[in-house]
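Sanity check

After download, print the first record. It should look like this:
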Amino acid sequence: MKSIFTEFSNVEWGLKGLQELINIHPLFVHFPVALLLASTAFFVIGLIVRNENLYIAGKWTFYLGTLAAAVTVWTGLEAAKTVPHGGGTHEIMMVHQYFGFVVLGLSLVLSAWLFFSKTNIPSKGRVFFLLGLLLLNAVLIQGADLGGRMAFLNGVGVGKKSAL
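Expected structure tokens:
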């Protein structure tokens, strides 16, 4: 039986995966997904338990998620120039791109609403704000699924070497 130390010693250390990148989009895609989904959870749980600190966490996580969405859309537009668009990939990529635009647009609108409300969660139209968050999450998850299908089913941008 191998010891855990033997397994660690057989691994090549350093950021070797970066050598396989075709573009930098994969480095950013998970930030808006995690931050925007977490933000919604903070807001919803904050409403349930009536905790202002959770609203604060939701607000700042949402702002960071919006910033991450902007960077991710930009890197995605640049990435589209570096990968093949053959077969059905082009159609998936275009819908994925449009979903990214919708995520960014909704994030910007909801961030502005949050900012100008001057509270940690809008008091006027709160139900519509929460519905906007839920819509944003649905579009975000579907867009992420499309991106995952391109990468894992069609091999778009998965690296310079094929997986064994």
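If your output differs, re-run the checksum step. Summary of this record's structure: The radius of gyration is 19 Å.
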